[in-house]
Structure of DHA1 family inner membrane transport protein:
Amino acid sequence: MQTSTGPAALSRSKTNLALATLFLGMFVLGSGELLVVGLLNLIAADLQVPIPTAGVLVAAYALGLAIGGPILTALTIRLDKRTILIATVVLVIVLTLVPVLTTSFGLFVAARTVIGALHGLFVAVGFVLAMSIVPPERGGRAISVVVSGLFVSTALGVPLGTLVGQVLGWRGSFTAVAVLSVVALIATLLLIPSMPSTGGGAGSQAKYAFAPRVLAALAVNVVAFAAVYSALTYIVPFLESVTGISGAVISVFLLAYGAATAAGSFAGGRFADQNAARTLVVGSIGVAVSLLVLHLVGTIPVLVALALLAFGLFAMGMVPSMQYRVVVLAGPGAQLASSLPASAANVGIALGAFAGGVAIGTFSASSAVITGLIIAVISIPVAWAAGFLKPPVVADATVPAVATPEPA
């Protein structure tokens, strides 16, 4: 994918510091996004709402990111990228403190929705800026540095935040996220270079980015993430009620899952290069088998930990292939389409959180895992059918290199 003309050339050290700052921003936002999962019981009890109702916090964030992120990106497209990042982090700090300073569940949901939209904006602008400060041949590595902030937040930020919540209360965890956001703001002010707007081109790409084949590929993302988050959103109640663990031990299990997601996301890139379509089928099968095992051995802690490891490996191992398939199938619309997988994934997260909430509210703590299993089984034929989709045949030689069709 071609990079746009960005800020003046930076020294290697300044470039690395800027990328590290974007990594930190992604780490903080990723930690804040999933923190609710590990603190759901505490939040529900403190605010006196049912656990399924508390799950709305996950769905609200996901919908904010999926819908609000692209909207904010479009509205701010002509502004300096550094200015956008600064304003985004400032608003995140303020909104993260809303649930700390109030007992209103409605305000909590509203704040989470807006933070989700700001998260989507940060992701979009962060990728553009990262690619602009490195030579074109290093654009992919720059993106990997930035996105790894999300992977590390899953592996470390969420379990540590959950542990803080167990010791200091869930508001203490949100305060910690706000403090880290202040650090990210200072780093952004000092280390991120100015990058004025450089024009568009989205209109000419839209017919390729939103073609039926691309939308079909995005459907795989939606179903796959719905399967994962039907179970993951309510994994703490499952661990407490079925597995019989509580308190700080839960953080250990979440850490195992987080470490597996980090490893899976990095390993998944290699499989995506080999055959992304096949990887999505194998990953869907792996998620289904992992959830089946989790349900069957739910009362045995050691086996539950192993099932969560496999669950994380397969679930996040699919992510690089999801991104790759969408970009390939979009052809000349690859740059615009590259922003769509995150939205599709968060639609799936919202649907999964809702489905799991309905199940756990109607039946038992284990029903969310069963719901995830059912959706995962459905995702297998969806991924298989999407594997037959082919990229557009375009005579224009300027099609981005990332849109090169993958081998059969």
The CA atoms of residues 43 and 49 lie 8 Å apart. The two ends are 22 Å apart (CA to CA). The chain has two domains: 12-199, 204-391.
